[in-house]
Design goal:
This protein is of the alpha/beta class. Helices cover about 40% and strands about 15% of the residues. It is built from 19 helices and 16 strands. Helix 8 packs across helix 9.
Length: about 500
């Protein structure tokens, strides 16, 4: 059965168990990473009448509130957050997805009707394809569909799929919503909303850790999480002499986390390069380079044990802060509505760029990454702040509003720190360049350009060839995310 094969290819995402059910014309399957209701939350989940079944990936952070809302006429049987999808659908139909706050993809069926959905920003991945017999398949990674369908496509964020209607958009980021112009009001909002987002993202029955690069974003998340937890494990990687490692250690001491670090060498990253490209499912050069440290910090976190011998299964990461708070230096060239429009575009493109990177690198190690900066309530409220406040820049640096809002909560050298991209190190670039020059000749590059392959450099051609051999299935245009801004 196709679903059996697909589940085997996704075993790394869910090593704690697997479940499969045939329900009429639909088959639902899931490989489980047990985080909430570890003992009782095995999927597929079914309602008390045995009518509706659901499988899901991710976390629904407002599931407790939804249990209170739906508990009067729905009998919950587990503590799984995914179970709230069932009463939401039964009461509201496919539009029940609108009440969910979280990162998720799910499939729900009663054997006749089908509803497949992906979260508004595409934090959790989802792909689909059609077999020659017109059977549709959906999966969390492209490789699960390889060899099963004629072409793989990305399931669009903020959409549901319904057999009779096709793809239906249920969410779109608000456009030009910035009206708050008072800096004190904006700073207070940032503090309240980010604190609440971090608190909700700590929901777990297993230990939660945090990636800590020493940059502003990860440092804020670690600091806020540490205030909520009796113990927090933090994780950092860097090259020899890396300022990231030094800065992360400063933050760890300041907040009192149990800190773990790993010093990398260019040779280590070169050895991991092919593995990372295949796991990442992308040939975008900038994304591959940024995925290398994420791979190693994920491995570090996944192999760490608490004092009680428990494995870290959840980590907080800082993705989304640059897009929400105008953190990229090139954005200084934008003003007013042009800045709002560009931030909207950046937020809308995260799903197959940085969110794909952090999902694939963590889930390759059976580790769930959570992104509090992309909590939907936080995103919508921060978008109400006028762009001039984000751009003006306290301390003369990008993300000035965020720095100012938490200026007294971290050491000043961290608040004022300007973080460099990890993969900009010359030794890493030289090492990757050496590998590419050995694997891709000038003739290979010329042929690729003549053939119109969707690559922009010999480096991308090398990654493209690796991924093509691994997948062996054509990809619909647009499935691979491409950075469209200046090279960072």
């Amino acid at each position: 059965m196709a679903v059996d094969r697909m589940m085997r290819r996704l075993r790394h995402r869910g090593p704690d168990g697997a479940g499969l059910i045939e329900c009429g014309r639909a088959v639902l399957g899931q490989t489980r990473l047990a985080i909430l209701d570890v003992a009782g939350g095995r999927q597929p989940l079914v309602d008390a009448d045995g009518r509706h079944h659901v499988v899901g990936n991710g976390e629904i952070y407002n599931h407790s509130q939804l249990r209170d809302r739906f508990g009067g006429d729905f009998r919950f049987q587990t503590r799984s957050d995914t179970e709230v999808v069932l009463p939401a659908y039964q009461r509201m139909g496919w539009e029940g997805v609108r009440v969910l706050n979280g990162m998720f993809s799910y499939g729900l069926t009663d054997g006749r009707d089908l509803c497949v959905a992906r979260d508004p920003l595409g934090i959790k991945p989802l792909y689909y394809g059609e077999r020659p017999d017109r059977l549709l398949l959906f999966a969390s990674e492209m490789q699960a569909l390889a060899g099963e369908v004629a072409e793989v496509a990305e399931f669009p964020p903020g959409h549901c799929y319904l057999p009779e209607q096709g793809f239906v958009r249920y969410y779109q980021l608000p456009a030009r919503a910035g009206v708050i112009i008072d800096q004190e009001e904006a700073m207070a909002m940032v503090r309240v909303e980010l604190t609440a987002a971090v608190r909700s993202h700590l929901m777990s029955d297993v230990p939660v850790g945090a990636f800590l690069s020493g940059g502003l974003d990860s440092s804020l998340l670690a600091m806020l999480a540490r205030r909520e937890l009796p113990e927090l494990h933090t994780f950092a990687v860097g090259l020899e002499g890396s300022s990231d490692l030094a800065a992360a250690a400063i933050v760890a001491r300041a907040i009192g986390s149990r800190h773990h670090e790993c010093e990398l060498t260019p040779a280590m990253m070169a050895d991991a390069l092919e593995t990372v490209v295949v796991a990442l499912e992308s040939y975008d050069a900038a994304l591959v380079r940024s995925a290398l440290p994420t791979w190693f910090v994920s491995r570090l976190a996944a192999t760490t044990r608490t004092a009680a011998g428990e494995r870290i299964k959840v980590v907080l990461t800082g993705e989304g802060a640059d897009e929400l708070f105008a953190g990229y230096e090139y954005l200084r060239n934008y003003t007013g509505h042009a800045l709002e429009d560009e931030l909207n575009r950046l937020l809308g493109s995260l799903h197959n760029l940085n969110l794909q990177r952090v999902d694939r690198m963590t889930m390759a190690h059976a580790l769930e990454a959570r992104v509090p900066f992309l909590d939907l309530g936080l995103v919508e409220r921060i978008m109400r702040i006028h762009p001039v406040l984000k751009q003006s820049g306290a301390f003369g640096q990008a993300k000035g509003l965020l720095r100012a809002a938490f200026s007294s909560d971290l050491p000043p050298e961290i608040i004022q720190r300007q973080k460099l991209e990890f993969a900009q190190g010359a030794s890493v670039s030289d090492c990757i360049g050496d590998i590419v020059s050995r694997r891709v000749s000038d003739r290979d590059w010329a042929r690729a350009r003549a053939a119109g392959l969707p690559v922009r450099s010999a480096e991308e051609l090398y990654y493209f060839n690796l991924l093509s051999r691994h997948l062996g299935t054509p990809l619909q245009p647009g499935t691979i995310g491409r950075w469209q801004g200046p090279v960072l």
